[in-house]
Design brief:
Length: 117
């Protein structure tokens, strides 16, 4: 599975996420250069904390997959979080993900829809 299937950076401080990946019990590590040509692995308290630290911001904004639990599962399966960010706040996404696109709109994110087939 690709990361962009469950999470995409869509604005300076904003991510589209499938709720299951930002649960507090999900383990997360960061990899940074160790200064000797290798990598240093650090376990983070949460994915959200790792994002905030990496971006140097106090709080990230998360837009979760839309709808109730069943709708969120369906839209996740239909790549609701797999959008292409053209510039901060403007994404290309699938028109079929009605609930998630509505949440983007309410959050001020512009969605350029890919029509249904």
């Amino acid at each position: 599975m690709h990361l962009d299937t469950v999470m995409t950076h869509i604005d300076i401080d904003t991510f589209s996420v499938y709720p299951e990946v930002v649960r507090p019990d999900v383990q997360c590590w960061t990899l940074t250069p160790d200064g000797r040509g290798g990598l240093k692995r650090t376990q983070e308290s949460t994915l959200v904390h790792a994002l905030e630290t990496a971006l140097g911001i106090d709080q990230v904004r998360l837009i979760t997959t839309g709808g109730d639990a069943f709708e969120a599962e369906r839209e996740q399966w239909n790549d609701a979080n797999n959008v292409l960010t053209l510039r901060p706040g403007v994404v290309v996404g699938y028109e079929r993900n009605i609930w998630t696109n509505e949440k983007y709109d309410k959050a001020g994110i512009t969605v350029l829809p890919i029509p249904r087939r």
